[in-house]
Amino acid sequence: MKTLPTLLCSLCIAVSLHAQIPAGYKLVTVPLPRGAVTILGLCQKPDGTPAITTWEGEVWEYKSGQWSRFAENLMEPNGIYYDANEKAYYVAQKPELTRLVDSNGDGKCDRYECVTDAFGISSEYHEYHFGPVVDSLGRKYASLNLASRGDFTVPDGKPKGIGGGNMAYNAPWRGWVYRSDRPGHFHPLASGFRSPCGIGMSPQDELFITDNQGDWVADCCMYHIREGNFYGHPASLPGRVDFSEEKVSSLTAADFAKLRTLPAVWFPREAIANTPGSPVWDTTEGKFGAFAGQIFIGDQRQSNHFRCGVEKVDGDYQGWCVDFLRGTESGPVKMSFDPQGRLWSAQVGRGWFSVGGERTALQYVEWDGKTVPFAIHSATLTKTGFQVTFTQPLGKDVAPLAKSWHYHYYSTYGSPPVDEKELTVSNVKVSLDRKSATFDLPLTAGKIYALQFPAQTDAQGDKLDFDTIYYTANKLRPPREPRPGRNIGWTLVGSGWNRNDKRRPLPPTVEPLLTKDCELPPPEQATVLDAAQWTNQDWKFDAQGVMSRGKGYNQTKEAYGNARIHLEFRFKPNDEPAWQGQLYGNSGIFLMSGYELQVLNSYQNPTFADGYCGAVYGQQPPLANPSRKPGQWQSYDILMKAPAFGKDGSLEEPLRLSVIHNGIPVQKDTWVYGEVGKPYKPHGKRPLALQDHKGSEVSFRNLWIVPDIDYDKALPSFLGSFAQPQPQFAKLPPEAQRITILPPGMINNMDTDQDRVITPEEFLAYRSRQFDPADKNKDGFLDKNEFPNQGAFRGGDKDKDGKLSREEHLAIFLGQFKNVDIDGDGKITGLDKRKAGKKGLPR
Amino acid sequence: MSFLRTKAHVLALFPLGLLPIAKGAGTDRALAIYNQLCFNCHGLHFDGGIGPSLKDNYWRHGDSPENILKVINKGIPGTEMIGYEAVFPEEDRLALRDLVLSQHEGLRGVVRYVYPREPFQGKRLTPELMDKVKPLSETRLPENVYYFDRNGDGILRGKSKLFITDPGQYQFSIRTIGRTSIYLDGKEVHYSDEATPKDTHVNTKFDLTPGNYDLEILHEEKTTHSYRFSGVLQNENGKKWPLNGRSLEGNVPKVIAAGPEAKVIRKWIAGLPPRTLLCLLPNKVLVAYNPVDGKILAAWHSASVNQTPSLADRSAKPSEIRGEPIQDIEGDVLGKEPLRFLRYEMRLDTVHLVSLANGLEKTVLIAPDGERSFKVTLR
């Protein structure tokens, strides 16, 4: 084949015009396969074989200097992960998270499995799908870009477009990051992303996302992801049960600001990043040099690699970033460390400008194993200033400069630095080993600090390649910080929260279905769990079949595995302030005697989210809170699949659980991770149990169970077993809703009294003000040149004299007013909406 | 200014076979062969069809006389272009080469140099001045139009031949971005600079006779999101030759054609739902299947998929299906049950599409049926 010589050409060391590569490191370019015009994704197999995905839809593997194509004809696979146990790749194609399997071992994919396609897509090109990354439990995480055009944007009163809110929510879950535990599972995790191009999982199972500057995103940044949090771009909020497009449109930046979670690290634009890619952690244990444990990110625009670190201050991550290397051939987006400790980057310069200039490139950075370049290593916030650490002992003079600023949070594209000021640095002290400097400066929470060491040399007289480190101080050090290891609780894998974390967002309150619709009679094949079925005689049944809590747990006589369960429960009203929170109506459904579905009065009784009624206690809060008042009967419908254990007792599949509370699904095929406070240990069928909890006056009725049900088969119909009502929201008065049918600039000019109502008088006053400026020749009429809309001109020129009088001019716009006043109430308000449905159509 | 030239002058400048084509017996013979054979693929008017156009600026395999002859002699493996070395005598093949060359008006043999900016600050760009500085890069562009892949980060110097077949008056029309100087056979015919008043600009009309000329374009502009240099050469009859364009690589649609085994293609096609699976069978029948509702949306015979160029416009353009629509297809395959799509597999000439409906796996098999049709089996 003609192209063979190029494929075989040896690796060449990149020489770039403006490269700044730290001493001891080199940047090596790997030749690409023919046809790989744009590479998007990159991963390493455990043996070090790199695999790439291309925009053209191919997956290639690189073995002993040869490329071989593994899969083709995919749709923009923007990220790839190799599962060594399954011997399969996972790729985030635009429409689907896909598992690629080579079942006959010939090195080519022959089975394309859909892992999840439960998110919407409208064919808008900007709806990218990035990922996946994987946690230690093997669960996949990926992020979904908003569209760049569409009907639903959040301009917040500014002219739509670059001026305000250009990114659109055209389909479900755009602007979200999700988790997929297994094929067919989709769990939306967190909202508020604009263009979440970078996604990374820390070695501690914490998810981080980088986002791109734009509307509602003041600058490029990295977020620590916590399940249920909102990260700032309001166009994604309609995906939440407690929001709708109308509600989002009625809110302002000040409202969203209260809701949002700040980035852990801001990346100052131009200085560090304009289009950051995926974070990767230096887990090479020193094979890559002096930066073990740090986060490396590449920037598509800047063609650089930079380093980050985060630390918990008052419970939340924040941290620093500093440039590491500049001058990659194209724009790095996805990166990965190979087993030899080399940092690979998949680079792309298509579509968006990349300083490196090449259309695409695959490069790696290699350390020589000995040279430690003089560089800023890291920074940490102290109570009075900062401590900055270096890789080499410092020379004689240490004179840092400092600057601080913050950003606007608004719908406009990007924010300039606000309130930027030089700060006085005092009390500079160098440590004994001369490798770190501490200094004081005036600290304010919510600022970004640029800490610069101009002309700083090390003891040998070497200069820094990059002399500024940027620290994002969302919070200052509190007077007393919790001692590590005490009272922190364990972190839930991938969710960003600790067990029973009080900061975790509470499930949104929704309307339950009617009680009578939830009182399902036992079907034929069900076992009715009446008095004869229970073991604890202290739990008494009355004549109506209502069982009251007794002393101790109550187990069924029979043991169960897979099951469909129905039961109803009721709390005794209790106004005692001492009996609130976890003490008000606490019980629990102990599935297989160990896995707890929480029972609690959650009607106006706030507690931590994973302790709500409908929660997998201590793990997964319910998706919504449809609780009824104490004293009323409530219902649970449960479908569960028993955990599966291997012959050696290892866990093969955790318990799977779907729950409907008062007719509303609150757990959708959730994986349960162990019994309450205990890891898994192998077991077979076990009885169902009800919890006796201090303070709980709970009674049960209509308990029945269908044993040995085929969970997978029953799941779709189970989740659809109640008519799902559309979320209902209080109708807002017209004046509370923003007018959306006219461009914001026009509204501002028309609505002179700013009451969000445009009367015909206001409308025509604005139009008549346009007459004189348009009448260029000042003859009191508008001719064809002065009124360029020829169709309207012909229609409006009633007397056919070839010009418009003032009356004719206004008559044209009176007609327009009627067209815009959709509901015909004689005024233009937020209720006037175009009838046409969404363009593009989800699915 | 006029460029009246003699044949001797042309010969002196172009000794390498880049001669203007003289009409003669060879041309007639070449035309006869072309009209008998070549036109089948390259079109009656050299404008392409199954094969590429021989008139446009894109020369995948080079536009030098040597390269063109090589393609005629040896063909292009993997395409319908076979080698004609054993078919026609050498003089015929040379005549064919000259015929092809004669069709290709405009820029030829484009070489793009990038120079650093610093040495030319405040100085008018001239070939003599630039000769004194070492360029940062030198690239032969097969596309015969200028483009930058380094985001304009430097000064462009483009060297090429200009081949003209119509005598008459010519003029460059250049968008005023940054500064641009154009030299034809060593003489400045155009100068524009957005920083200086318009009356200092030069924009000469000049007469050309058929033949080859040396063309140099010197251009500098600010680094921006994308390169903005743009210009054309036009003659008095309104004929135009663009000077700028796009890289060929990544801008040529990749054609996904049917192969010996079935393929499943996922591309964005305007008018089809984004999750559509395009099943391209070995008999060139393409079936569009929507895995969301298990429906066959459309089908074509004699079909291929034209994948949108990967570099244009941030993927904002859809790919295209080429082929003849098959009418009256039975669309509803899996009925009305809610589906979860599980996987697809290609097994020889058949595509297996597996969904979960009501807890049961259901497989739709799409296989070729004759030359122009397909059959659907549900399992």
Explain the overall architecture:
The complex is a heterodimer of chains A (843) and B (379). By secondary structure, chain A is mostly beta strands. In chain A, helix 7 packs across helix 10 and helix 9 packs across helix 10. The two termini of chain A are 42 Å apart. Chain B is of the alpha+beta class and 379 residues long. The longest helix of chain B is centred in the first third of the chain and has 18 residues. In chain B, helix 2 crosses helix 4 and helix 3 crosses helix 4. The interface between A and B is large, with 49 and 45 residues. Strand 10 of chain A pairs antiparallel with strand 18 of chain B, so a sheet runs across the interface.
Gist?
With 843 residues, chain A is mostly beta strands.
User: Which ranges of chain B are low-confidence, i.e. pLDDT below 50, for 5 or more consecutive residues?
Assistant: 1-23
Assembly context of the chains? heterodimer
What is the global morphology of chain B? globular
Over the alpha carbons, how many angstroms does the gyration radius of chain B reach?
27 Å
How do the helices and strands follow one another from N- to C-terminus of chain B? HHHHEHEEEEEEEEEEEEEEEEEEEE
Strand arrangement, major sheet of chain A: 19-20-21-22-33-32-28-29
Question: What would you call the shape of chain A?
Answer: globular
What's the overall average pLDDT of chain B, rounded?
A: 83
- End-to-end C-alpha gap of chain B: 79 Å
Q: Give the tally of β-strands of chain A.
A: 46
Number of helices of chain A: 10
Distance between the termini of chain A: 42 Å
Going by helix content, strand content and strand pairing, the class of chain A is mainly beta
Low-confidence stretches of chain A: 1-17, 725-734, 836-843
- pLDDT averaged residue by residue of chain A: 89
